[in-house]
Amino acid sequence: MERKRKVCLFNTVVSSSAKMSKSGGSGGATTKDNAVVSSVINPSTGMPYSQSYYEILEKRKTLPVWQQKDEFLKALKANQCIILVGETGSGKTTQIPQFVLESVNAETPDGKRMMIACMQPRRVAAMSVSRRVAEEMDVRIGEEVGYTIRFEDCSSASKTLLKYLTDGMLLREAMADPLLERYKVIILDEAHERTLATDVLFGLLKKVLRNRPDLKLVVMSATLEAEKFQGYFSGAHCMKVPGRLHTVEILYSEEPEKNYVEATI
Fold first, then answer.
1. Which of 131, 149, 189, 221 has the fewest other C-beta atoms within 10 Å?
2. Could you tell me which residue ranges the Helicase ATP-binding domain spans (predicted)?
3. How far apart are CA 87 and CA 221, in angstroms?
């Protein structure tokens, strides 16, 4: 009986790269070869994607927001400010920052690297979401993807491209750098919570947008009064992401519970 040989993805990439080198570098490789190699190489790390990356990618493609990826990218290219209304479970918190990172050139003409900021009103959300996004991008947390909360900075000044941070930390950065010149795109998530820091940021960012035409702003929420924010940000483009991945139901308890966590289980 003929034995089937296992083919490792990493070996395939290395073998393809070696063949390209033997044929005379990039000049000897065909466009098709380059496309195949680039599709399995993580541009953030320069290493082949792991198997878990492809497994997670299939799950990402089932999220409602993934179906409107092209529409969002077109809107981002054509507008300085976008108001995005997405229902809970649509995937906007984890996917939109990755869409932005894929499409925006975060490097200035003089070679300076800029970042994409995603503001979260809660510390726990900033940490947990950043870890999830790092896993989806197949990178290490604290390097290409990081987070900054009070008393803790898990990011790299030289490597981080996407940074999650609380509204208080973004406000503190704005006080030190009024034009927020470190960032190419700023994403305000869960804007409907309207914390004091978030409201102050709205005022500051409106002024920054006037002084920095190259800066883009994305305001996201599950229950946002889009018309009011469109008016506040001078006719910003509004986009809605319908549908939930899982149905959200409210169940009422007939009697008071001592421990609501155990009761839900």
1. 131
2. 73-242
3. 8
